[in-house]
Input
Amino acid sequence: MADLAQGVAIGVGGLQGGGLGRRRQCPQSQTHSQQASGNRQAAHSLPLRKTNPGHGSVPAPTPRPFFRGLGVVSRTRDGYGPGASFRNRKAPGPPAKKTQGSQGVYTSMPSLDPILDPHALARALSGVHLIDGALVAPVEGRCFDVINPATGAVIAQAAEGTAADVDLAVKAAKRAQTAWARRPARERGKLLAECGRRLLLHVEELGRLVALETGKALRTESRVEASVLADMFTFFGGLASELKGESVPFNPDMLTVTLREPLGVVGAIIPWNVPLLLMAMKIAPALVAGNTVVVKSAEEAPLTVLRVCQILNALLPPGVFNIVSGDGPGAGAPLVSHPDVRKVTFTGSVETGRIVYKTAAEKLIPVTLELGGKSPMIVLADADLERAVDGAVAGMRFTRQGQSCTASSRIYVHADLFDAFFERLRARVDALAMGDPLDERTDIGTVISPEQFARIQDYIAKGRASGATTTECSGLPTDPALAKGLFLRPVIFTDIAPDAPPAREEVFGPVVCLFKWTDFDAVIEAANDSPFGLAATVWTNNLQKALEATRRLEAGFVQVNQNLVVQPNLSYGGVKTSGLGKEATLESMLEHFTHKKTVILNML
Ligand code: ADP
Output
């Protein structure tokens, strides 16, 4: 394990034991004051570029004061969906003492060698955005707590972005875009492929950090996500030479061609459940196509994506890939509405997706939306039972506490197999070990936040109240260190009405509804009777039935006898309220991150 640069590692150490939402000082001020006091231990392995690291004739961004005020807010939000805002917001604290030479630029950064202690890395990444190639303090000087959902402890503080931070990031991205787009496509592709290689060196580090901040088990979830992240960059890097146009047989005296051109600055808004993969699915195709990006990270999981941004900024020119943390209304909304953002790509809830879409409509810019799901899994009478049960465990993402938009949360089992299926499913989920996400023995980690925990519990209560039979599986961890963790026992509902809330709405938790069926047409109809249309699976050895079901199911991603997660080169995205547009393929890169320019050369 590489040593951390100590100066940044001091960030949250003094905060241990503090209550959530307690007012805190953003950690950079401590760093700077350490440096100012000449503490040599605060020296760092790598100097950071200034916010304007030299763009030729490009003007520097207006220097901003280092901390206009210091204050800390809890990440806890007032409920869910659009308009949710930070609760316990504190007024800005007293102005920080400005350190000589600091202009809001974080003059030091964590080592770029893999850092395998996720707690140390979390502290090192505290209190900054990454804008224009530099780790910078938030303009307003506010931070919010990042909580380990397995213990309730504060592990770091994240910069709370506002419109001012977003503006700096977008301007940096805009300045960088022309030169980035003018690079030969294959050169960009090679850089992206190198990003993939570099990220592979960090799989373990990133897996541990994302396990710490999201509560997803390292072995079953987080490490896997970290490796797919690298693959996404490698894949899109290899597609660079496919950014080609066509020649058009318009007139023999004219050379008529189309060119694929980038859109400009892309705003990418990501959620917390699979932050690395979902970010990569957006930024890798956007970058290789010649766009530059500003990512708004999810307030629950701001650290690992920031680390990825830091790693990749060692390869990419400044301003090409920027990241701002903060909440939706404070940082996400200004990103979408910023006049220089020419494309928005969003993954999150349907409610927020609608808000994003409306703002984009006002600006007349294209959007890609990946929203919710309530994915059906249909098991026919001839299905291989063991294989189908394996598929249900994997598809329901029990190891991720069901926090997946593709979760197979409605399982329709033919009456002939129903009882055996239920018993085996219960036994399989019972056998999953719930515990510390960083422990290699753990299969299931935690739910992300107290709000999400309460929301899932509310759905479980509604299911019970509807008269459904409720079966709780697995067992809560007994380790006292995890007593405050957001562990939740998976629930299987049987005999549940199709219109009961957990059967109809997206729970985003470890709650699955099992239905018994006998009529094929009726089960297809039931599966399609949902506002969502993201994913579906069919389990049968009857090829004819399999094909018929795949044709009739209203979903963007249909699989037979398997339940794979998203992978590069598999088109991913939904129909109905599950979203607009697809991701992860060559076509998605061309359609969503370029426009076609027609050029006619009259040779007469
Ligand atoms: P979830 O409930 O899963 O967090 P959201 O849709 O609320 O889903 O959040 C997904 C992402 O959208 C997060 O990064 C969040 O901060 C962001 N977001 C929330 N509200 C807005 C908004 N009004 N405008 C832009 N982004 C937003």
In short: Residues 211 and 218 are 6 Å apart (CA to CA).
